[in-house]
Design the sequence.
């Protein structure tokens, strides 16, 4: 029995698109990593970006493996491709479920991560600079408790220059009232939405790819059995 050329070239086309999607995931992950001017404070709360970078690289490798397996009609490559897709599909499914139902736990985890930076005055100068940039951008002050996170040395970035934001008086100064943790959590949720959207699209592609890979694998096996 001959191998169906349509299935063969559909799988090759799929893997080409799959490889391109891996490039897109890698590019988006790198963009998320360098966004906010690579702010060290937001990077503390978004460790999943490193995982996304790894997934992008793995998908690119699997896409290349699937292309070679389809063109060369290699059962070993096709089976490795199928197993790789299945494992990533399970990981994406688990991550999506955890991300959807564990929002409160994610918020608690972010809060605990940011508390480790307190007191802010003890942080290295580069971290303090990044936090002050975050305060200006997010119209906030401090991380968890507000201006008290800075102790007695409250930077000018906390000055409430935008009256549309919640402000409070401290001595002779008018300071932003909202702690930056609120802004960081919103930033995290925005990134999580992007990641989950990409993961859902990739998961649909994976189901299609696994079906094509297994179909071609079975055809090659029957072909070899017929030639024996």
Sequence:
């Amino acid at each position: 029995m001959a191998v169906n050329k349509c299935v063969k070239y559909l799988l090759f086309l799929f893997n080409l698109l799959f490889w391109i999607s891996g490039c897109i995931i890698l590019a988006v992950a790198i963009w998320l990593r360098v966004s906010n001017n690579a702010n060290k404070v937001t990077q503390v709360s978004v460790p999943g970006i490193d995982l996304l970078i790894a997934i992008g690289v793995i998908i690119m490798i699997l896409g290349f493996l699937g292309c070679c397996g389809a063109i060369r009609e290699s059962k070993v490559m096709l089976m490795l491709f199928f197993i790789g897709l299945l494992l990533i599909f399970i990981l994406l499914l688990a991550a999506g479920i955890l991300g959807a139902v564990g929002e409160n736990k994610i918020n608690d985890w972010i809060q605990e991560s940011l508390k480790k930076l307190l007191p802010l005055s003890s942080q290295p100068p580069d971290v303090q600079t990044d936090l002050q940039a975050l305060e200006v951008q997010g119209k906030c002050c401090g991380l968890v408790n507000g201006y008290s996170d800075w102790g007695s040395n409250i930077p000018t970035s906390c000055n409430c220059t935008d009256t549309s934001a919640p402000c409070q008086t401290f001595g002779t100064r008018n300071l932003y009232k909202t702690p930056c943790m609120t802004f960081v959590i919103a930033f995290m949720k925005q990134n999580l939405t992007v990641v989950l959207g990409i993961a859902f699209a990739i998961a649909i592609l994976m189901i299609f790819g696994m079906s094509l890979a297994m179909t071609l694998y079975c055809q090659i096996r029957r072909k070899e059995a017929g030639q024996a």
Observations:
- Residues 5-109+192-227 form one domain.
- The chain has two domains: 5-109+192-227, 119-182.
- The chain has seven helices and two strands.
